[in-house]
Specification:
By secondary structure, the protein is of the alpha/beta class. The protein is built from six helices and 15 strands. It has one domain: 5-stranded Propeller (L-arginine/glycine Amidinotransferase, Chain A). The protein starts with a strand and ends with a strand.
Length: about 230
C-alpha cells in the first residue's frame, strides 16, 4: 500500500530520511505568508486530515493539492488563514474516534459540517491549537500539556494523560508541543526526536506502550515541533 507523510519543508533531514526508509513518500507542504514565520510550513495549521479526507485553506498551491489528491479526498475550503490568533487555528482541529475538540467559533465551516454528517461530536475548548497541542495515541487516548484540552477530553470520555509543558523545540517560540512533534501510522507513534529529557517521559512511554502501540524516534536530536507528521494511506 502506498503511504505518504506531509511535513514542514524545514523538517530536519534525519527525520525525513528515516521516514523515507520506512517507505513513506515525503510531501513537503509549501510555506505560506498568511501566518507567523515559525508555523508557516506546519501541516496541522494548513490542513485538517481525517478518515481519508483533507480540508485545506483556499490559497493552497495546485501542485500540492495534486500531490495529495491521489491519497485522499480533498476539500478546498473558504476560510483564509490569518496571522493573528485565532485566524491561524481554523484547521488545527483535534479529532479522534467520534470526538473532535476545538475552539468551535473558529472551526472552518466545512469541517463543522463534516462532523455533523459523520456523527462526530464537536466539543468546545478555549484553546484553538488543539491538534498541535495533542498527541493522538488511539481512538480513545490522548496526551497533552494543555489543561483546557485535558479537561474537555476527559469530560467527553477520552482517556487523557496530562503532562508538563515544554521540553520540545520550536524555533521562534519558547517551546513547542507534543502533537506537533508527532504523527501516527498504524500501531506506531512517530516522534521527531528524543523526549527522554522530559520529566514525564516514563509516563508518556508507558502510557503509549500499555496500549500496544510502538514508539519510534526518528532522530537522536531533541524532538522538534514541525506541525505534526500527517500520514496519508493510498
Amino acid at each position: 500500500m502506498k503511504k505518504a507523510a506531509i511535513i514542514d519543508p524545514r523538517t530536519p533531514e534525519d527525520v525525513t530520511g528515516n521516514l523515507a526508509v520506512m517507505g513513506f513518500e515525503i510531501i513537503p507542504i509549501p510555506l505560506i505568508d498568511h501566518v507567523s514565520e515559525p508555523i508557516c510550513g506546519h501541516p496541522d495549521i494548513q490542513i485538517f486530515l481525517h478518515g481519508g479526507n483533507a480540508f485545506i485553506h483556499p490559497a493552497a498551491s495546485p501542485a500540492f493539492i495534486s500531490s495529495i489528491a491521489e491519497y485522499c479526498n480533498v476539500t478546498i475550503c473558504g476560510t483564509e488563514l490569518r496571522a493573528a490568533y485565532p485566524g491561524d487555528v481554523v484547521y488545527n482541529v483535534l479529532c479522534t474516534g467520534g470526538i473532535a475538540i476545538h475552539r468551535v467559533d473558529s472551526t472552518e465551516p466545512s469541517i463543522r459540517q463534516y462532523f455533523l454528517d459523520n456523527n462526530i461530536n464537536l466539543i468546545h475548548t478555549n484553546q484553538g491549537y488543539t491538534r498541535c497541542s495533542t498527541l493522538i495515541v488511539d481512538d480513545k487516548s490522548i496526551i497533552t500539556a494543555d489543561r483546557s484540552i485535558h479537561k474537555s477530553a476527559s469530560a467527553a470520555g477520552l482517556d487523557s494523560l496530562l503532562i508538563e509543558p515544554g521540553y520540545i523545540a520550536l524555533p521562534g517560540y519558547d517551546y513547542g508541543f507534543i502533537g506537533g512533534a508527532s504523527g501516527r501510522f498504524d500501531n506506531t507513534i512517530l516522534l521527531t526526536g528524543r523526549i527522554d529529557h522530559h520529566p514525564d517521559f516514563i509516563r508518556i512511554r508507558d502510557y503509549i506502550e500499555m496500549r500496544g502501540i510502538e514508539l519510534k524516534i526518528l532522530s537522536e536530536n531533541r524532538a522538534i515541533d514541525t506541525g505534526s507528521i500527517l500520514i496519508l494511506n493510498g
